[in-house]
Design a protein that fits this description.
Elements: H1 4-10, H2 15-37, E1 46-50, E2 56-58, H3 59-75, E3 78-83, E4 90-91, E5 98-106, E6 117-125, E7 145-153, E8 157-162, E9 167-173, E10 178-183, E11 194-196, H4 207-218, E12 229-230, H5 236-246, E13 249-252, E14 265-266, H6 267-280, E15 284-286, E16 303-304, E17 306-309, H7 311-321
Parallel strand pairs: 3-5, 11-12, 11-13
Antiparallel strand pairs: 1-2, 3-4, 5-6, 6-7, 7-8, 8-9, 9-10, 13-17, 14-16, 15-17
Bound molecules: 6-O-phosphono-beta-D-fructofuranose and manganese (II) ion (MN).
Length: 322
């Protein structure tokens, strides 16, 4: 099986980016180990503090954040990092060529029930003019990403990553400690009969999403004339992984409750990296009002509505918005 390094070289990835990715993955391997220790290492449960988004931090959120932040800061390849678990951007090395945004442990409420969780990351070039702790350098649209991916801490530890030459899936071979390509150039099936949405929020959605989901649920008796199935892991990494592997549509749509919070998921370290992976696998990624990767960010923790997945299904969903 092909090694990660070989795949990245074949994809024309510059050496310094390969070294950065390998450094980041070293952190993820440590997170994978810490996660697997579970109750034995006393890492389950919550801390007594909230993050900048007002979410109670899990102990593993904090551990994963420190591991990534420290390894990346010390690497020399990174000028600054931004994390879901940090209020502000953290300046790293003044000569670092890259910016890294990450969600250290996505779906972390699943830690206490031994269910799917993962790390999501997005890498961009660091502008030369920027001071290392300048947050404005991060406010680039997702089209500027040079690499993005996630590491899924599931029954096996898997990596999905793109550097703009297709999306590849890798599996961590714990016998030698490296990621091996287990599916190159993933293609998301264009059609699907699976959807993923937290329907307990249905009454708060905009009209187009209400009608779309009503028609999915009406199944073969409704206008779609086929039955759909619903799946919800409650960790974006888990749901997006399933969609990449066998198709589907994943949505966390606009929610009318608070116009200042137009969606749940964060643009920089959740929506953009997943959008890059999905588009590189032939799928689509939209907010309902435009391509996710073209959203011009205004702040590092900004939230956006997301619709991601099988091309034909996302297009069908978008017809309800037009
Ligand atoms: O990071 C936010 C997140 O945990 C995603 O991973 C997941 O898709 C979503 O929130 C789950 O939301 P809910 O709590 O509504 O099921
Ligand atoms: Mn998350």
């Amino acid at each position: 099986m092909k090694r990660l390094n070989t795949q990245l070289q074949e994809d024309g990835c510059p050496l310094e980016l390969i070294l950065l990715i390998r450094t980041l993955l070293a952190a993820c391997k440590e997170i994978s180990f810490r996660v697997s220790q579970g109750a034995l290492a006393g890492v389950l449960g919550s801390t007594l503090s909230d993050n900048v988004q007002g979410e109670r931090q899990k102990k593993l959120d904090v551990i994963a954040n420190h591991i990534l932040r420290d390894i990346l800061s010390e690497s020399g390849y990174v000028k600054a990092v931004s994390s879901e678990e940090e209020d502000n951007v953290i300046g790293c090395h003044p000569d670092g060529k890259y910016l890294v945004s990450f969600d250290p442990l996505d779906g972390s409420s699943n830690t206490d029930v031994n269910s799917l969780i993962g790390t999501i990351f997005s890498i961009m070039h660091a502008p030369q003019w920027m001071e290392p702790d300048d947050p404005s350098a991060f406010l680039q649209p997702g089209t500027q990403q040079v690499a993005a991916g996630y590491v899924l801490y599931g029954p096996s530890t898997m990596l999905a990553m793109t550097t703009g030459r297709g999306t590849h899936l890798y599996t961590l071979d714990k016998t030698h400690g490296g990621f091996l390509v287990t599916k190159a150039n993933v293609q998301v099936p264009e059609q699907t009969n699976e959807f993923a949405i937290n329907s307990s929020n249905q009454r708060h959605w905009e009209e187009p999403m209400q009608s779309y989901v009503t028609d999915l649920i009406a199944g073969s008796e409704g206008p779609r004339k086929k039955d759909f199935n619903m799946r919800w892991v409650a960790a974006m990494v888990g749901d997006i992984h399933r969609v990449l592997c066998r198709g589907g549509i994943f949505a966390y749509p606009f929610d009318k409750r608070n116009p200042a919070i137009p969606g749940k998921l964060r643009l920089q370290y959740e929506a953009n990296p997943m959008a890059f992976l999905m588009e590189q696998a032939g799928g689509l990624a939209d907010t309902g009002h435009g391509r996710i990767m073209e959203v011009m960010p205004t702040e590092i923790h900004q939230r956006v509505p997301v619709l991601l997945g099988s091309k034909d299904e996302v297009e069908t969903c978008l017809t309800y918005y037009r």
